[in-house]
Inverse folding.
């Protein structure tokens, strides 16, 4: 793929009114989700659940791409059609999570560094040959007493940039994700400071590693109060602070920003994205790459009776995709939820 192609794919990922469905839960995370609905986490059940999501009628209307886990990229529908082909026929880009998880950072108790660079060049070549068009790598940053350390931010930024450069070499658009976790009682201001530091470090490392920003997508966490904070900032405040933070730390050349939901409520995540797009004063499209906030209602409906509820679960996904598609245009209203 030439750099022109990278730019084209990156732009398509954040095309008007569309965003990304994150369905790249590792087997461990999938176990947690399935435990919550009382479904056994077998490979076949994971396949059936993902088939339900991917074959949602009209998925492509508001979904530009889907992030897979390694297992899912290799799976097929019950009729034997590879999931990658299902997406391609629908006009949805297949993506793949390529990091191998966040592991304890030596010498820094409570902090993590994401691993997976060893052998990554070969894995990316294989993923590209299987049809993947973009890849994701997630770093995790925790807010706490004396956290994050400079070491944690730097180690994660460095790995993200090395991964991004390898992606572009393999013809895959990198989605770089430095997630500042919502866990904790911290105030919005603290989240702002940490997010800005993480983003500045990331873009400095991307520059060092000669990563083409026009062919890169940032998956960002919002600037938001900690989930246990006594007084949590409201929707407008979150939107203003997040946009301000991005404007300060993210180069205008970047192809686009998509947000993770990170434990926000389904409608809360939509309202935040919408409020940002209503502000409308930034150089990049602001869209979504939600996992839980897109899947949650669908997962619950499917889990109640996987054999009988496929169509009902797909309607739930289509609804959340539509609400978030409207939010990328700043045209979401809470009243639409009832429709
Ligand atoms: P959530 O939206 O559930 O946070 O998941 C998005 C994601 O892919 C995190 O890496």
């Amino acid at each position: 793929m030439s750099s022109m192609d990278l730019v084209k794919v990156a732009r398509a990922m954040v095309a008007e009114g569309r965003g990304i469905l994150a369905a790249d839960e590792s087997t461990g995370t999938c176990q947690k989700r399935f435990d919550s609905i009382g479904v056994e986490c077998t490979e076949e059940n994971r396949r059936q659940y993902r088939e339900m999501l991917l074959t949602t009628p009209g998925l492509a209307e508001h979904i530009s791409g889907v992030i897979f886990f390694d297992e899912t990229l290799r799976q097929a529908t019950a009729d034997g059609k590879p999931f990658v082909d299902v997406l391609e026929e629908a006009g949805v880009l297949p993506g793949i999570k390529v990091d191998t998880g966040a592991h304890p950072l030596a010498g820094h108790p409570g902090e993590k560094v994401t691993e997976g660079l060893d052998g990554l060049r070969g894995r990316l070549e294989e993923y590209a040959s299987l049809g993947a068009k973009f890849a994701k790598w997630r770093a995790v940053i925790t807010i706490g007493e004396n956290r994050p350390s400079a070491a944690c931010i730097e180690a994660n930024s460095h790995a993200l940039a090395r991964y991004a450069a390898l992606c572009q070499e393999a013809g895959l658009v990198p989605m770089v994700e430095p997630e500042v976790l919502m866990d904790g009682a911290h105030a919005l201001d603290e989240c702002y400071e940490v997010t800005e530091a993480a983003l500045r470090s990331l873009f400095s490392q991307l520059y060092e590693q000669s990563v083409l920003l026009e062919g890169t997508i940032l998956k960002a966490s919002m600037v938001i109060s900690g989930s246990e904070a006594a007084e949590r900032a409201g929707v407008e405040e979150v939107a203003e602070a997040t946009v301000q933070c991005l404007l300060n730390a993210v180069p205008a050349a970047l192809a686009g920003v998509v947000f993770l939901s990170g434990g926000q409520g389904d409608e809360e995540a939509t309202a935040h994205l919408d409020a940002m797009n209503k502000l409308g004063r930034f150089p990049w499209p602001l869209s979504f790459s939600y996992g839980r906030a897109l899947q949650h209602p669908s997962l619950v409906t499917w889990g109640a009776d996987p054999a009988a509820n496929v169509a009902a679960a797909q309607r739930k996904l289509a609804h959340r995709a539509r609400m978030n598609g409207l939010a990328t245009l700043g045209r979401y209203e809470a009243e639409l939820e009832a429709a």
In short: The longest strand covers residues 134-141.
